[in-house]
Amino acid sequence: MSNNITVIGTIATDPRLVNPSGGTPICSFRLASDERRYDREQQAWVEGNTNWFGVACFRNLAGHAHESFRKGDRVIANGKLRVRKWEKDGKRGTSVEIEAEAIGHDLRWGVTRFEKRFGATASPQDTTSSQEPAASQELSPTHEATPDAHGFTAAVHSDEHAPAFGPDGFTPLEAAA
Asked: What is d(CA 149, CA 18) in angstroms, rounded to the nearest whole number?
């Protein structure tokens, strides 16, 4: 049984892209979802609890998310909810993770521009697009442009460490997708 969830929140860590050779690309980050409500007595907005989620995006969504999002961005994430118990070095805990199926900026807080990428179609049979991937991308100096097997260019960190979403709050979701 699969539980779908939609969460609105703020990206709390720099999105990390791991692209293992021959494996499935994964972009992961932490998402903070604040509970905010209007208190009529105080006549002000008051902050409630913060719920923390690990978010993992796979395949094309991984590259697109890594290139599109930065720490501090407000996003809406929809996907499969995974709640897992963990134990490591005598410590126990629970991780709450979202295996993202769709994700985008929360437009209540700003604007964004959509750019369709070559090869990122909903149907693999849709090859009628004449749009070619951009030859040069505006990337920050800490990223390099790397075309993937589908023809889109994603920003890739030179960091070789795998994302973590477990005891430390980051152990990656198994690539069960």
From this structure: 15
